[in-house]
Amino acid sequence: MWALPISFKFRNEQYRKPFLDLLSFEASQYHAQCERCLYGLLCFRSSILLQYDLLVVGAGCAGCIAAYTASKIGLSVLILDRKAEATIGDKVCGDALGSHHLSLLNLSLPSDCFYSSSPGIDVFSPDRKSVFSIEDESLRAVSLKRHAFGQFLLKRAISAGAELVDSFHVSCPIFEGSRVAGVRGFGKDGVRSYSAKVVAECSGTASVVRHQVPDADISRRVPRENTMACYREIRRTNGRITEHLQIYLDQEKTPGGYAWIFPLGDEMVNVGLGVKASEGISPRDAFFKYLAPMEILAGSTFVNGGGGIVPTTKPMDSMVYDGLMVAGDSASTVSPMHGGGIGSSMLSGKILAEVCAEALSKGSVERKGLWEYNRRYMLAYGAKQASLDAFRRFLQASSNDEINFGMAHEIVKPKDILLASKVGDLNLSITEKATRAFRGIGKIDFLIRLRNVARLMKEIKKLYMEYPEFEGFSSWVAKVRAIESSAKL
Question: Which of 141, 279, 379, 436 is most exposed by smallest CB count within 10 Å?
Answer without folding.
Answer: 436
